[in-house]
From TrEMBL:
Belongs to the ABC-4 integral membrane protein family. One of its GO terms (molecular function) is transmembrane transporter activity. Residues 298-389, 884-991 form the ABC3 transporter permease C-terminal domain. Keywords: Cell membrane, Membrane, Transmembrane, Transmembrane helix. Its main location: membrane. One of its GO terms (cellular component) is plasma membrane. It comes from Actinoplanes campanulatus. This is ABC3 transporter permease C-terminal domain-containing protein. The keyword Cell membrane applies. It is a multi-pass membrane protein. The chain crosses the membrane at residues 293-317, 338-360, 372-394, 406-423, 443-468, 489-507, 879-902, 923-951, 971-997. It is found in: Cell membrane. Pfam families: FtsX.
Length: 1011
């Protein structure tokens, strides 16, 4: 019997070769999918970690209130804990520390700081870097306000601590300027150099604070001073990470906080380890799970297509060998002998297919952009696929009855309907688990659609048979008759293959379109530069000069809406931009942002007073009565980009003498739009009586403009400052008010003079999610807390999503109007977090500004479509279409070959009746063409329907939530027509080739065999 296997293989090698090709292709597909969800998934997370920004991988240990005797040991232990948490990766460490406050002269306070890599975080203006703890560098604002120059000496008193260090006199060796994005926001004074109303944790009254006085970092950590705060930052080298090591440092970083607390014990008051690294790694893992689910869904579709091809191959093989098997049984071969022959042949076929499929799947994985690898999961998937394929093809000739087939079709349709219902009912929130419904539903829906479409093909062919014209020629009527009456075993494969190919092309286009839409709304504009520190006047001009385009300040921060802080750790987001330019600046969401912005923008611009560059601004004030009063004036200056900054002066006594405000007129195009005059005195309190009339004049030489100014008293307790008024005349602004001496000390007692009226309620547009969660509608009023200032807002419109806050509970406001509302309530800070740029000509130049992280729409779209984590989905889609085409063509070739093999006698009889070979070939090609064209059309229709019905439900955001904005299905006509044309041409070529070869073999020998 084994000899029979060899002889039959030699005689039927074309059939076995086609069967081997289909089995190998199906097994290789399984191997590729296994590699994509294992090797590629692990490598994608490794690449994502290697591409992370420094801020995402830094691990920082914090310690608060360290006694000077414990400083060296606390530093050493903190470094050790961080190094252990990040093992086995090499770690680079840096640190910064600030001492407790020390008294300066005139009731002021100051502090020492040490920065390990100071030359990289600040630039010298004059002098040299300090080399010991009795030498210091100061920031420019500190030097200006304290009138310090290089060579001056500053006396700092004893520390305010339990074990105070003695007084210290330091020599100023340098005046420095902070570099953007260098971490100065973590300085006690935020890198501003001063705070005229600093209130420490244990201070009863605010005080003027100045610093840092930057001393030698190792000297500060030697135990010479107690520390108010210590930061040590570790940066692991993740340039070539391993996914197992990444899992280890993720766990180590999460446990580092508890470990540091146990190690430091009572030596510090507060300790903490903070890092975005575990979150970044967890996010990459969640993104990979989302990608894996989509890859598996497409992979199951490819496997379903392969199963259809294998079922066809098994059926055709059984048909070809049916008479042979019957003859062997008649000659005395037992069932065990026949089974042994079949098992030997199947085993040999499975072995060869496995040997071929393993390297083939590895090669295809490399072609898709993965690494060359052979894994156990891959080999197991290939072997399992091969075994299942052989079992499918060994099913014999038994076919289910028509009633059973109808029941199976109905069951398939029911399962597809249930899967679609499950897809439509999936929640909008993040779902990262691999869901069997999401994986199986696309294949079920396509298969069910093809099964239903196939029900329509036979009636159409039967109708064509009845309507065929009675022509004198035989080939055309014969082709129609045979098409209507011959079995169409390959019908499901043809329809499903065409549906899978067209759906794969459309799904790929829809997915890419969705990623671009998500990128547009995620960034919110063409270029967003998130600031690492406070913005400065003239910064917008520098951005415009570097990158070009339209530049505007923007806010994007978390806020509280009334008492509501959001849910699931996600605070409401407030986005504020120049609403007049919303149509130019904003991107994404498919909204008419110009129309939305028109409902938010103020009617008139803030005119203000022009401030000539280099003007010597002075403040002169007087107060009645014997109580000594002072003010710390704050000038609100607006630059040409709309950015408002605060220029402050030290406490200025109201003594009738002019006092300079240096550094306020250093930029071009500045306009003074508001003045805040908080009045201070040690005499304020409940025991004081009487009041004092103040008269303060701000003089700006060369100023022009004016407009209408208003004056008010700000919260809290605005009644403590009565009758505020302002008069603008040329270069001077004169403000008067009556200050109540008695009353609460926490009263603001502040004159707020503005060049615009109080806007009252700020109009906002809110996201649909916020409107649904708070049950609000246009016209509803809310209260939003910006920083510490509550601002009333009124909903002007509802939008699906707010730019730069997709899917979030978010509000969109005009930045100018918001700033006016804050100023009217005594808050001088404009809430600016970023620079937004529309139509930049050189976005890459933003990196050279060192202002913070820069994101572009195009860059974000590139990350979402070609990044290491989502790359698996485009890869498997690139595999699906050619696999569908090849399997379809292989099935068609196999079907036509077997059909003509079975009809060889019929063809010989036609030749015997005098029909020419050309006419026979025309009839045969026409028969198969008439069958294939409607099947291809039906498959394309099913693919199009699936694109509209299924594709939007399969696509999720990178974190597994419903994408915002919603999905717009894409049917790329040029690509789809190209695929349909390739399928049609390929099928015709395959049919014609087989017909030409097989028709030549049909001769009188077949008639002799039959007779």
């Amino acid at each position: 019997m084994l000899g029979l296997v060899g002889r039959r293989a030699r005689a039927q090698w074309p059939l076995l070769a086609a069967l081997l090709a289909v089995v190998t292709a199906g097994a290789a597909l399984l191997g590729v999918c296994a590699l994509l969800v294992t090797v590629s998934a692990d490598r994608a997370r490794e690449k994502a970690a290697a591409a992370a920004t420094p801020a995402e991988i830094e691990v920082t240990g914090y310690a608060v209130t360290v006694a000077r005797a414990d400083v060296p040991s606390v530093v050493a232990d903190t470094r050790r804990v961080l190094a252990e948490a990040l093992a086995p990766f090499p770690v680079a460490m840096s640190g910064r520390a600030s001492s407790v406050m020390r008294p300066l002269s005139d009731g002021r306070i100051g502090y020492l700081s040490g920065v390990e890599d100071l030359p990289e975080r600040a630039s010298l203006v004059s002098g040299r870097w300090p080399g010991s703890t009795d030498e210091a560098a100061v920031l420019e604002p500190t030097a200006r306000l304290l009138d310090l120059t290089v060579g001056d000496r500053v006396a700092l008193g004893a520390e305010r601590a339990r074990d105070p260090a003695p007084p210290l006199t330091i020599k100023i060796t340098a005046i420095v300027r902070t570099k953007p994005g260098a971490g100065w926001d973590r300085d006690p004074l935020g890198g501003t150099g001063f705070d005229l109303a600093y209130r420490g944790a244990s201070a009863l009254q605010p005080a003027e604070a100045y610093g840092p006085f930057l001393v030698d970092y190792p000297g500060l950590l030697s135990g010479s001073s107690a520390l108010s705060r210590l930061e040590i930052t570790a940066r692991p080298d993740l340039s070539d990470p391993d996914h197992r090591a990444l899992a280890r440092i993720e766990a180590g970083t999460l446990a580092a906080d508890r470990r540091l607390s146990a190690v430091l014990g009572e030596r510090v008051q507060i300790e903490r380890v903070g890092s975005a690294l575990p979150g970044m790694l967890a996010e990459a893992r969640r993104q990979q799970q989302v990608t894996t689910a989509a890859v598996l869904a497409v992979g199951v579709l490819a496997v379903a297509l392969t199963a259809a091809a294998l079922a066809l191959a098994g059926r055709l093989t059984a048909d070809v060998r049916g008479e042979e098997t019957a003859l062997l049984s008649a000659m005395g071969a037992s069932r065990w002998q026949l089974g042994g022959v079949a098992a030997a042949e199947a085993g040999l076929l499975a072995l060869v297919a496995t040997v071929l499929a393993v390297p083939l799947s590895s090669a295809v994985h490399v072609w898709l952009g993965g690494d060359l690898a052979v894994t156990g999961a891959q080999v197991g998937a290939v072997a399992a696929g091969t075994l299942l394929a052989i079992l499918v093809t060994a099913g014999g000739r038994q076919r289910p009855a028509p009633l059973a087939r109808s029941g199976a079709d109905l069951l398939l349709v029911a399962l597809a309907a249930a899967g679609w219902w499950q897809l439509t009912s999936q929640p909008d929130t993040a779902q990262t688990r691999v869901d069997a419904v999401r994986i199986l539903s696309p294949a079920l829906l396509l298969a069910a659609g093809c099964v239903l479409a196939l029900r329509l093909v036979p009636p159409a062919l039967t109708m064509a048979d009845r309507l065929v014209p009675r022509t004198r020629g035989l080939p055309v009527p014969l082709a129609v008759v045979q098409a209507a009456r011959r079995p169409t075993a390959a019908a499901l494969l043809i329809a499903l293959g065409c549906a899978a190919a067209t759906f794969g092309v459309a799904f790929d286009a829809t997915w890419h379109r969705s990623q671009r839409d998500q990128a547009d709304l995620s960034v919110g504009t063409d270029l967003a530069i998130t600031l690492g520190g406070a913005p400065a006047a003239g910064q917008g001009a520098a951005v415009a000069a570097a990158v070009g385009g339209t530049v505007a300040p923007a806010a994007n921060r978390g806020v509280a809406v009334g008492q509501w802080l959001g849910g699931n750790g996600e605070p409401p987001r407030l986005v504020a931009v120049d609403a007049h330019r919303a149509g130019t600046l904003l991107r994404g969401g498919g909204e008419d942002w110009a129309a939305v912005g028109a409902g938010l923008a103020p009617v008139a611009a803030a005119e203000g007073i022009t401030v000539p560059p280099g003007s010597r601004i002075t403040v002169t004030g007087r107060a009645t009565g014997a109580v000594r009063l002072a003010t710390t004036p704050r000038l609100i200056l607006q630059d040409p980009t709309g950015l408002r900054t605060v220029c402050s002066a030290a406490a200025t006594p109201l003594d009738g003498r002019p006092h300079d405000m240096p550094g306020c007129a250093d930029g071009d195009g500045l306009r003074l739009v508001a003045v805040l005059l908080p009045v201070t005195s040690d005499a304020f309190g409940w025991d004081a009586t009487g009041d004092s009339r103040i008269d303060v004049t701000v003089t700006i030489p060369g100023a022009s403009g004016g407009g209408t100014w208003t004056a008010a008293s700000s919260q809290p307790y605005p009644e403590q400052l009565r009758e505020p008024a302002i008069t603008v005349s040329g270069a001077t602004l004169r403000m008067t008010a009556t200050v109540e001496l008695g009353g609460p000390t926490e009263a603001a007692r502040q004159v707020v003079a503005t060049s615009f009226p109080d806007p009252g309620v700020v109009p906002v547009a809110v996201s649909r999610r916020l409107a649904e969660q708070l049950s609000v509608s246009p016209g509803s009023e809310l209260q939003v807390t910006v920083g510490n200032t509550p601002v009333p807002v009124k909903i002007a419109s509802i939008v699906p999503g707010v730019p730069s806050a997709p899917g979030s509970v978010a509000l969109l406001a005009d930045l100018d109007t918001l700033s006016r509302a804050l100023l009217a309530r005594g808050d001088p800070q404009m809430p600016v977090d970023a620079w937004w740029v529309a139509h930049p000509s050189n976005a890459a130049a933003s990196a050279g500004l060192h202002l913070g992280e820069a994101h572009t729409r195009t860059g974000e779209a590139l990350r979402l479509t070609t990044g290491p984590v989502p790359a698996g989905l485009p890869a498997v889609l690139r595999l699906l279409v050619p696999a569908a085409v090849l399997l379809l063509l292989a099935g068609v070739t196999l079907h036509v070959t077997c059909d003509l093999h079975a009809r060889a006698v019929e063809v010989a009889r036609l030749r015997g009746l005098g029909m020419r070979r050309r006419e026979i070939r025309t009839a045969l090609i026409g028969q198969h063409t008439i069958v294939m064209l409607p099947l291809l059309a039906a498959g394309a229709a099913v693919g199009a329907l699936a694109t509209w019905v299924v594709a939007p439900l399969m696509i999720r955001s990178e974190l597994g939530a419903a994408p915002v904005p919603g999905i717009a299905p894409v049917w790329p006509w040029p690509a789809e027509l190209a695929v349909l044309g390739a399928l049609t041409a390929g099928c015709l070529i395959a049919v014609a080739g087989v017909v030409i070869v097989q028709s030549r073999r049909a001769d009188t020998a077949h008639l002799r065999v039959t007779s």
